Amino acid sequence: MTVAMDASWRNWLQGNLARGCSVESVVESMVRGGFDKDVASAAVRAVLAGEAPDSSSYEYDTCPVSPDRIIHAHDREIYSVLRVGRPQLILFGNVLSAEECDQVIELSEGKLQRSTIVDPETGHAETIRNRSSEGTYFTLSENPLIDRLDRRISALMNWPLENGEGLQILRYGVGGEYRPHFDYFPPDQPGHAAHLVRGGQRTATLLVYLNDVERGGETVFPEADISISPRKGNAVYFRYFNNFGQLDPVTKHAGAPVLAGEKWIMTKWMRRYPYSG
Ligand code: PD2
Ligand code: ZN
């Protein structure tokens, strides 16, 4: 559906979404203002989809994460070990204790399912070969441990708790890998608009290693020639959506095949707008 909308409505919409108003509430206001409900929903989607990238000139603006070497994140002192400028990437140590890693694994073990990936054509979740792993997720603050970790990660990423998706857990066996991809929703893929309706574009990822992998399982950024070895309790942060609404293609990354042992990771994806609540 193409939507005819004058500039003042568009500005109003962009402003409200940027302030964190829910999609439902802005659609309701538009309906009260005389819009047809389908037209209003399509207009919101169009504004969200308008987060168009101009990747050739991605501007590395100030990262929200504290530049300090030791960051007090909610209840824990976390150490930055390595910082990269392009892409914006930080390796952290001491994000979770060994006990917390074990507890998250234990809580996840019983409810693992074969991982799905979003089909770019339809926007539906599909089980495909690109991601040979099993996974599960926790809703935001699902239990006291997850609540503490959600709050710690939000403080570390310096991004609102309610903009975060629920923590996702993945387990890879030998041969398991995650082929190269972007964590953001590429705007040239037809299914992407459906993902932006709730929370808008993803802005940054924190990937936490929950165990030491015997061999393989590195997280690699092929465009930047970076390879990160999994280490229990460490985490890698990377940011791909700047304050100008551009997306950074250099954050393309992959999980290399596990060669021996198993690999457990926990992922937090942050959104531009509130995702939950
Ligand atoms: O397991 C990994 O190293 C990995 C690699 C790429 C995880 C993700 N992406 C992800 O969870 O998005
Ligand atoms: Zn990823």
TrEMBL record:
<dbReference type="InterPro" id="IPR044862">
    <property type="entry name" value="Pro_4_hyd_alph_FE2OG_OXY"/>
</dbReference>
<feature type="domain" description="Fe2OG dioxygenase">
    <location>
        <begin position="163"/>
        <end position="272"/>
    </location>
</feature>
<dbReference type="InterPro" id="IPR006620">
    <property type="entry name" value="Pro_4_hyd_alph"/>
</dbReference>
<keyword id="KW-0479">Metal-binding</keyword>
<protein>
    <submittedName>
        <fullName>2OG-Fe(II) oxygenase</fullName>
    </submittedName>
</protein>
<keyword id="KW-0408">Iron</keyword>
<keyword id="KW-0223">Dioxygenase</keyword>
<dbReference type="InterPro" id="IPR045054">
    <property type="entry name" value="P4HA-like"/>
</dbReference>
<keyword id="KW-0560">Oxidoreductase</keyword>
<dbReference type="Pfam" id="PF13640">
    <property type="entry name" value="2OG-FeII_Oxy_3"/>
</dbReference>
<dbReference type="InterPro" id="IPR005123">
    <property type="entry name" value="Oxoglu/Fe-dep_dioxygenase_dom"/>
</dbReference>
<keyword id="KW-0847">Vitamin C</keyword>
